[in-house]
Design brief:
Number of domains of chain A: 2
CATH superfamily of the largest domain in chain A: MetI-like
Number of strands of chain B: 20
GO biological process, one term (chain B): peptide transport
Structural class of chain A: mainly alpha
Largest interface: A-B, 52 and 54 residues
Structural class of chain B: alpha+beta
Helix content of chain B: 25-40%
CATH class of the largest domain in chain B: Alpha Beta
CATH architecture of the largest domain in chain B: Roll
Shape of chain A: flat
Strand content of chain A: under 5%
Oligomer: heterodimer
Pfam family, one (chain B): SBP_bac_5
Organism (chain B): Thalassorhabdomicrobium marinisediminis
Number of domains of chain B: 3
Number of helices of chain A: 14
Strand order of the largest sheet of chain B: 8-9-10-1-11-18-12
Radius of gyration of chain A: 24 Å
Helix content of chain A: over 70%
CATH topology of the largest domain in chain A: MetI-like fold
Number of helices of chain B: 18
Shape of chain B: globular
Largest sheet of chain B: 7 strands, mixed
Largest sheet of chain A: none
Order of helices and strands of chain A: HHHHHHHHHHHHHH
Distance between the termini of chain A: 7 Å
Subcellular location (chain B): Periplasm
Family (chain B): Belongs to the bacterial solute-binding protein 5 family.
CATH superfamily of the largest domain in chain B: Dipeptide-binding Protein, Domain 3
C-alpha cells in the first residue's frame, strides 16, 4: 500500500514539473510579451526597454532556473500589466469560478445520476431510450452554442438579460446550466452502464438467491460497486472545475478564472498564465491523487495488493 | 420651538428636492466593452480600450473640438487656457485656475511639469515608455510660475499644441502619483476629469461616478460602468434587453442586425487610423535572399491591380473610404478632396508594370494578425484573387499576434497607421516612414528610405508657415508614392450600438467621452 501511495505521489510531482516547463517554454515562443506591452508601431528601443524590465533579455535557461527558484520559495511573480501579484489576482477570481463550476457539477450530478439509474432500471424501454437520447444530445451540444441560444432567446423573446453581472450571484443559474448539461450527459451514460454491469453481475444473482430485498440489493450491493468508475469521473470533474468553464465564462461574460486565462494569454501576461496553469495542474493532479487514494477506501482489492 | 424645527426642515427639504431631482435625472450609463486595458495610466494604457475610459477621468491641456466638427480639426483650451510660442523652440502654457483633482487638490504647474517630465515620459528609463513617441523632441519642461509652464523642443515645431490634445497632454496629480507609485496609480487612477473612478478590476469592469466639482460641469451622467463582455452576441443581448446602454465593436456583418433591433441605433464612425500593409522591400533580408519586392515595378503593379474602392464599397458600404495617401480629412487645410492617388486601380497598367519587373511568379507571403483589424482578412482574400488575375501569387498567413506576424520571412506585413499627433501629416508620413520609424529601425523593418525622401522630409519638418509646409508635404507624398513602400486600405471604422434614449455622439473617434459636450440630457 505504501508503495502504491509513493508511486502515485512521485507521478504527481513529475507531471507537475513537466507541465510548468512546457508552459514556461510555450508562452515565450508563442509571441513576445514585450511586444504585447508596446504599441504595434513602437520603436525598437521601447520594446527593448520592456524586455530588459521583464528579464526577457536573459538566456532562457537563466529565466527558467530563476522561475523554478522563485516557485520553491512560494513566489509566483507579478502581472506584467498591472503589477499585482498573480496569485492574488487569481484568488480574486477563484470564488466566482468555483461557484459556477460547483453549481454546474451539482446540476450535472442531480440530473445525470437519476437519469442514468432510470435508464438502467428500465433497460430497453422507451423511457430508457428517451433518457439516453437526451443525455447524448446534451453531451454533444457545444456549450457555447447552448449559452448563446439561451442569451439571445432571453433578450429577444423575454427582454431579459441572462448574462452575468459581477455583483449578482443569482445569475449563476443559466451559465451553470449551460456548463452542467454536457457533464450531465456523461454522468447519465456512465451511471447507466456501470449500474447495468453490476446489476447483472454474479454476486447480485447470489444476493437475490440469499433472499435479500430489491431495494437493499440496489442500495447496499449494486450502488457501491457501480460507484468506482463514477468516483473517477467526479474526481476528474473536480479537477476540471477551474479550467473547465473557459468557454462558458467568455460567452456569459462571467468574471472568473477562465476569462482571466483567455485575457492573460492574449496579452502575453506570463506570470498570470504560468500561475493559472500551475493552479489548474495542481488541482487536476490533486484530484487524481485523491481518486487514486479513494480507490483504497472503496475497493478492498486494491488495498490488499 | 416645534414649529421652528418643522419650518426649517421643510425649508431644507425644499432646497434639497431640486438638487436631488437633478441628480436623479442623470442616467447611470453601462457600456459593454470587449476588453479593458489592464492599467489606466493614460500613457502606459494608450489603446482603444483604455482611451474609452481615459478622457472621462483625465483632461488634456488642449482639446480637439469634436462636438461641433466630428473630425476635430480645431483646438480649444482645456486645462491650458492659452499657449504662446515665445521663441521658435519654446512654448509657454497658461493653466486654468482652481481646477480640482478628484481628491480636491488643486492642479498647478508642478502637476503639468511632472506629467510631461523626462522621469515619466522621455528620459532614459521612463516610467511610461509608451509616451516616447508623443514626447519626441521635448528637451525641457519647467513650471515657471504657479500656473505657467514652459516646454522647450529641440526642433522648431509649429504644430506642438496639437500634441497637447494627445495622451501627452493628460495632467496627472503629482502628489498622488508619487505617493502610490506607477502600478497602483494605473489600478486606481485620479485626474481632473468629469468622472471619478470608484472601482477597477481589469478583468471585470471599471466604475466611475460623476465628479460634481468638475471645472466644466455639470456632469451629465450619474455614473459610468465599463463592463467586459467578450462575446458580441452577449453584448447585443444586453443592449436589447436594457442591461447595457452602449455596446462597442459590432462586427461589420452584424451591424444590420443591431440596426433592426427595437429601441437601439448604430453609430458608425470613421476614426484616425488607417489599416494598410507594408511591402518588405529590403535587399538585405537574410530570410528572403532573392526578394522580388525590391523591384518598384512589382510593388506598383500590385497596388494598381487592386480595386480598393470596390472592395471597400462591398465590405463597408459608405461607412468609410479609400484614402489618397496621407490626404486625411482630420488635417483641415491639408485635406484636398480632389487630390487623386498616383497608382489608382488600373489592371492594364498593372500588367505593364508587371511586365517591366523581374517577377517570375514566386509565392509572396502576407502576414496578417488574426481578427485585429475588422474586415481585413476578407479584404485580403479579395486582393489575393485580384493579384492572381494579373499573375501575382500571394499567400496569406494568419497568425495570432503581432510578434508572430513580425517573424520573418514575410513579403507583406499588416499594420495600421494612426494619424493623430500634430494636426498635420507629420506623424503618418514622416514619423512613421522616416529614418527613426519602426518601418526602418524595428526588428520587423520593411524598407530603407531613399535619399530624396530624407531630404524632402527634412524640408517638411523645417517648414514653419502653412504654405511652405503644405508644398513640402506634397513633394514628400509624391516621393512616397514613387517608392510605394506600402498600400493604405481604408479609414478604420468603429461601431457603437446605443439605446435610443441616450443622446450621445462621440464624433469621428474611438474615444468615448461623456461630458456635457458629447452627452446631452
Amino acid at each position: 500500500m505504501i508503495g502504491y501511495i509513493g508511486s502515485r505521489l512521485l507521478r504527481a510531482v513529475v507531471t507537475l514539473l513537466i507541465t510548468i516547463t512546457l508552459v514556461f517554454v510555450f508562452i515565450r515562443f508563442s509571441g513576445d510579451p514585450a511586444a504585447a506591452l508596446a504599441p504595434p508601431d513602437a520603436p525598437q528601443e521601447v520594446i527593448d526597454q520592456y524586455r530588459r524590465a521583464l528579464g526577457l533579455d536573459q538566456p532562457l535557461w537563466k529565466q527558467y532556473t530563476a522561475y523554478l527558484g522563485q516557485l520553491l520559495q512560494g513566489e509566483f511573480g507579478y502581472s506584467i500589466h498591472t503589477g499585482l501579484s498573480s496569485a492574488q489576482v487569481f484568488m480574486g477570481r477563484l470564488p466566482s469560478t468555483l461557484l459556477l463550476g460547483g453549481s454546474a457539477l451539482a446540476i450535472a450530478l442531480l440530473l445525470g445520476l437519476p437519469l442514468g439509474a432510470i435508464g438502467a432500471l428500465n433497460r430497453g424501454k422507451p423511457i430508457d431510450r428517451f433518457a439516453m437520447g437526451f443525455s447524448v444530445f446534451a453531451f454533444a451540444l457545444p456549450n457555447f452554442l447552448f449559452g448563446l441560444i439561451i442569451i439571445l432567446v432571453g433578450a429577444l423573446v423575454f427582454q431579459t438579460y441572462v448574462g452575468a453581472s459581477p455583483d449578482s450571484f443569482v445569475d449563476v443559474f443559466f451559465p451553470a446550466l449551460t456548463l452542467g448539461l454536457a457533464s450531465m450527459g456523461a454522468f447519465a451514460r456512465f451511471a447507466r452502464s456501470s449500474l447495468l454491469e453490476t446489476i447483472n453481475a454474479p454476486f447480485m444473482v447470489a444476493a437475490e438467491a440469499r433472499g435479500i430485498g430489491g431495494r437493499r440489493r440496489l442500495l447496499r450491493h449494486a450502488l457501491p460497486n457501480a460507484a468506482i468508475p463514477l468516483v473517477t469521473l467526479i474526481g476528474l470533474s473536480l479537477g476540471g472545475l477551474i479550467a473547465g468553464s473557459v468557454v462558458t465564462e467568455q460567452v456569459f461574460g462571467w468574471p472568473g478564472v477562465g476569462q482571466l486565462l483567455v485575457r492573460s494569454v492574449a496579452t502575453r501576461d506570463i506570470a498570470m498564465v504560468q500561475f493559472i496553469v500551475l493552479a489548474v495542474a495542481v488541482t487536476m493532479i490533486t484530484a487524481n491523487l485523491i481518486v487514486d487514494l479513494l480507490y483504497l477506501l472503496i475497493d478492498p482489492r486494491i488495498r490488499s495488493k | 420651538m416645534f414649529h421652528k424645527n418643522v419650518l426649517s426642515a421643510a425649508f431644507a427639504l425644499a432646497l434639497a428636492v431640486p438638487l436631488a431631482a437633478q441628480a436623479q435625472d442623470r442616467p447611470d450609463i453601462t457600456l459593454a466593452v470587449d476588453n479593458l486595458w489592464e492599467t489606466m495610466d493614460p500613457v502606459i494604457g494608450i489603446s482603444t480600450s483604455g482611451a474609452r475610459v481615459h478622457y472621462n477621468v483625465f483632461d488634456t491641456l488642449i482639446s480637439r473640438n469634436r462636438w461641433e466638427d466630428p473630425d476635430g480639426a480645431t483646438l480649444v483650451p482645456q486645462l491650458a487656457t492659452s499657449w504662446e510660442r515665445k521663441t521658435p523652440y519654446i512654448w509657454e502654457l497658461t493653466l486654468r485656475e482652481g481646477v480640482p483633482f478628484h481628491d480636491g487638490h488643486i492642479m498647478d504647474a508642478e502637476d503639468v511639469a511632472f506629467s510631461m517630465s523626462a522621469e515619466r515620459l522621455w528620459g532614459p528609463e521612463p516610467l511610461a515608455p509608451r509616451g516616447t513617441r508623443y514626447a519626441a523632441n521635448i528637451v525641457r519642461v519647467e513650471a515657471t510660475g504657479p500656473l505657467t509652464v514652459e516646454v522647450e523642443l529641440d526642433i522648431a515645431d509649429p504644430t506642438f499644441p496639437n500634441r497637447l490634445a494627445t495622451p501627452l497632454g493628460f495632467v496627472l496629480p503629482k502628489h498622488y502619483y508619487e505617493e502610490v507609485g506607477t502600478d497602483a496609480f494605473g489600478q486606481m487612477p485620479m485626474g481632473t476629469g468629469p468622472y471619478r473612478v470608484t472601482s477597477f478590476d481589469p478583468s471585470v469592469e471599471l466604475t466611475a461616478e460623476a465628479f460634481d466639482d468638475y471645472w466644466n460641469g455639470p456632469v451629465p451622467a450619474e455614473s459610468l460602468t465599463f463592463r467586459i463582455v467578450p462575446e458580441f452576441s452577449t453584448r447585443f443581448a444586453g443592449l436589447v434587453s436594457g442591461e447595457f446602454d452602449i455596446i462597442v465593436s459590432i462586427p461589420a456583418d452584424q451591424i444590420e442586425q443591431v440596426e433592426n433591433a427595437d429601441g437601439v441605433h448604430v453609430l458608425s464612425k470613421g476614426i484616425e487610423n488607417y489599416p494598410m500593409f507594408a511591402f518588405n522591400m529590403l535587399e538585405d533580408d537574410e530570410t528572403l535572399p532573392d526578394n522580388p519586392l525590391t523591384d518598384p515595378n512589382l510593388r506598383k503593379a500590385m497596388v494598381s491591380a487592386i480595386d480598393r474602392d470596390a472592395i471597400v464599397e462591398a465590405l463597408w458600404g459608405d461607412a468609410t473610404f479609400v484614402p489618397t495617401p496621407f490626404n486625411f480629412p482630420e488635417y483641415g487645410d491639408y485635406f484636398d478632396p480632389e487630390r487623386e492617388r498616383a497608382y489608382p486601380y488600373d489592371p492594364e497598367r498593372a500588367a505593364e508594370l508587371l511586365e517591366a519587373s523581374d517577377y517570375d511568379g514566386e509565392e509572396l507571403e502576407w502576414h496578417i494578425t488574426r481578427g485585429f483589424y475588422p474586415n481585413y482578412e476578407i479584404a485580403a482574400e479579395f486582393m489575393v484573387e485580384q493579384w492572381r488575375d494579373v499573375g501575382i501569387n500571394v499567400k496569406i498567413t494568419l497568425v495570432d499576434n503581432f510578434s508572430l506576424a513580425y517573424e520573418r520571412p514575410f513579403h507583406l506585413l499588416n499594420m495600421s497607421m494612426s494619424s493623430d499627433f500634430s494636426g498635420d501629416p507629420w506623424r503618418p508620413l514622416w514619423l512613421d516612414w522616416g529614418p527613426t520609424s519602426s518601418r526602418v529601425n524595428a526588428s520587423h523593418r520593411t524598407y530603407v528610405p531613399t535619399d530624396k525622401f530624407l531630404e524632402l522630409g527634412e524640408a517638411f519638418v523645417q517648414a514653419q508657415d502653412f504654405e511652405t509646409r503644405y508644398a513640402a508635404y506634397l513633394d514628400l507624398v509624391a516621393e512616397w508614392e514613387d517608392i510605394t513602400p506600402g498600400m493604405y486600405l481604408w479609414r478604420n471604422v468603429v461601431s457603437y450600438g446605443v439605446r435610443d434614449d441616450l443622446d450621445w455622439d462621440p464624433g469621428n473617434s474611438a474615444v468615448t467621452i461623456f461630458d456635457k459636450r458629447y452627452l446631452k440630457n
